[in-house]
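User: Fold this; tokens only.

Assistant: Input:
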Amino acid sequence: MVGKVKVAGVGLAILMITGISAQARDFADIYTECGLGAMIAPHNEAVAAVTNVTWDLGTTAISSNVSSPDTCRGGKEKTAAFIMKSYDKLSKELAMGEGKYLDTMLSLAGATEVSEKKRIRTEFGRLVAQPDYTSMNRKEKVEKLYNIVFQGV
């Protein structure tokens, strides 16, 4: 426990030394939008904050806010990375209409309504049915799915 307190103190010292002010984000926002908590529970601030505090007293949240603040701003970046990494599994699960990868993508994107899932499946089906789909490279397919996911958001 003493080690975690020291690490938290070092994180706070770095924050103050580097001159990065809390202007961009309050500590409450850092604990809910950054770090491990935000990755585990991107749409549940209470769980995100508790996770950050429990895991390492919030040091990863603070350090990610300092080193890469753009990664703390919501689910779009995380969703894009997840789609890129899991595209093959996502495309299969979109065709089936269920699966853990599909559920994870929808959760990251904040598409929690059944109507959103149906819309994404329908639009993805249209994409796959296009004659040029088979000639698209992976990056193009990922980009198209990402655009479908965030079209209604």
